[in-house]
Amino acid sequence: MAGANVVRTPELRVSLGDPRFVLLAIGAVVLALFPYFGHAWGQTYLVSLVAKMLIFAIAAVSLDLILGYGGMVSFGHAAYIGLGAYAVAVFSKYGVDNGYLQLVAAILGSSLIALFIGAISLRTSGVYFIMITLAFTQMLYYLGISLEPFGGDDGMNTKRSDFSLRALGLDFTLNDNLFVCEKRVDKACKVDDRDGAAIYYAAYIALIASVWFTRRLVASRFGMVIRGAMSNPIRMQAIGFPIYRYRLTAFVLAGAICGVAGFLFANHQQFLSPVYMNWLRSGEIMIMGILGGIGTIYGAVIGAIGLLTVEELLEGYVGKDYWQMVLGPLLVVLVLFANRGVYSLIPHEMRKVPMFVVKFALVIAGMYGFIWLMSKSSPILKIAGNIPHLPLYVIFGSMLVALALRFRQDRRAGHG
Amino acid sequence: MGQLIFETILNGVQFGVFLFLISAGLTLVFGIMNMVNLAHGSLFMMGAYIGSYVFQQTDSFALAVVVAIPFSLVLGIALEFLALRTLYARDHLDQVLATFGFILFFNQLVLRVFGATSQEFRLPDLINFPMPLFGFTYPSYRLIVIVVGLAVGLALYLVIAKTRMGMLIRAGASNRAMVGALGVNIRMLFTLIFGIGAALAGLAGVMIGPIESVESGMGENKLILAFVVIVIGGIGSIRGAFIASILVGLVEVIGRVFMKDILRTFLPEEFAQTAGPALASMSIYILMAAVLFFRPQGLFPARTG
């Protein structure tokens, strides 16, 4: 457990003089206005994509709560996405579209399952914890596959949740459904439905709320206890804290927040599939947190948006067939060379910001240019003969060289 | 019915022995270097792919086995030497992520090189026929898998219990730093172990290839099962891995075949039809959760403290 005893001290207070806060505020405003511009430019797909990013950001934030502050490496966080989605599907299957009911069921369901999983998993630690959380998620995944009434392996279509005031039992015609508005005939509502702005803002508000909640939580006494239990569990116990109970509470809270993400995801996709609980999905959520920087909360949001953006770019430019072949080595390189996360790269002082912006722009431009080059070069290489994917070999080769160099450095530094 | 029970139990043993081939390397990597290597499933997959490729080219199963094992050995050593050894000092999180990256890479690599369809890999009739055994019949090839697996298990046991290298491995599993301090080149030893583990995974791949389908992502389910095995058996323990493999194999296969019938005896028919397959695929995870609940370090913990 080499990394578990590293005490991370995140800056919990923000001020206007802090560039991180300024950047986050700008980001929040841009995201808030995004559907407006997206629709103005006719980019409905982009709005839907960013809504998906926001939903996964909620999941990544909830994972960061237990991973970054509690040291609990849960390799089964996708379970709660699935549970939230199943809450929507089960109710809608039996004709209950009431969104309030579904949301409560999603939160309760994922909390209860998290309580059960956590109560058993938290008896173990380290690798055993990673594996047992993975095992429980696999169980739920196979359970989902064999649940034939809810689509089994193939999944099933779900209806959007009904968040109208009617669902609350109030007979208002003024304010109809938030997510679905087939029944309304005026133009504004039709635009809403088609462009998915409602689901976007639901995800946006839920994300802001979960970020706010987790930041408050980790700064509170409760947060101090779970952070203390991460850096020195024995001492915390000696002081008299029942750390098992504190950890379990954090685990359940994280599950509940992620359940909300699952609830939103089912509404976003209007589809349910057991694949939501696949272990690759759990890995993806974990990668988001780590790319952004764990133990920062904001980092998880940056990581979720960043990873899904890179995936989308690679899929678009490199092609559906082998973008993962680029993403895989990219992850390896990122883990080996930049293991502190993107968020930690943002400077603390205002005067360092211009330099940072320039560097960041250069990196983004470089990456973009690289992907562009790869997309352009492959036809030429195809003509050149039977090595159609030379760029991939070049990346992988250079990665290997970089690793070999690093290995030599390690040797020189006396780690060999 | 007797034939079915006989065949199911032997199939369980065969599956368990096969899991042992994958888990043996993984548990040593895990136990000695405290390293979570998700790419182990990819080594298994690469073994199966190379085996099927050689088979398609030469039409010889024996040659496929002979080529796939050294190939996996070299691939494993190369992977360890070039990338994974920088990860030993990192925490589990980094290891999980980086090796996860390798899974993505290898899965897509085989898709690009060999195509999306599953690979042709047949057994010669010479070793594949219904064999009479204790008054029942059983496919001879599966019997060969059992025998090979048991032989490998015995060989590993002898190496680990009787040789100097085995002594170092055991010492490394219980206290790596101390072994290093005593002047043993633990890194070299470890590269070797990693290579052997990879070769065993490759052997498992080439042996299971003709029974199951050779396709991209075939390693992942097996990898998770292997992790279940080593967590149940106790990390770093070959003996634990062997016993847990057989246990998991039996539970998995018997559950698949008989869970419905077992449930039917005390539950309504309709319910048994739905719950049977669900419970069968969950059963090994339930087993694992139960073992960890009562013995958080697994059945045969190799590391103390």
Plain-language structure description:
The complex is a heterodimer of chains A (416) and B (305). With 416 residues, chain A is mostly helical. Chain A has a domain at 27-291. Helices cover 69% and strands 1% of the residues of chain A. Chain A contains 15 helices and two strands. In chain A, helix 7 runs antiparallel to helix 10. The longest helix of chain A is centred in the last third of the chain and has 32 residues, at 353-384. Mean pLDDT of chain A is 76; it is low at 1-10, 170-178, 180-193, 380-388 and 407-416. With 305 residues, chain B is an all-alpha fold. Chain B has a domain at 2-214. A two-stranded antiparallel ribbon of chain B has the order 1-2. In chain B, helix 1 (2-33) runs parallel beside helix 5 (140-162), helix 2 (40-58) packs antiparallel against helix 3 and helix 10 runs antiparallel to helix 11 (269-294). At the A-B interface, helix 5, helix 11, helix 13 and helix 15 of A face helix 4, helix 9 and helix 11 of B.
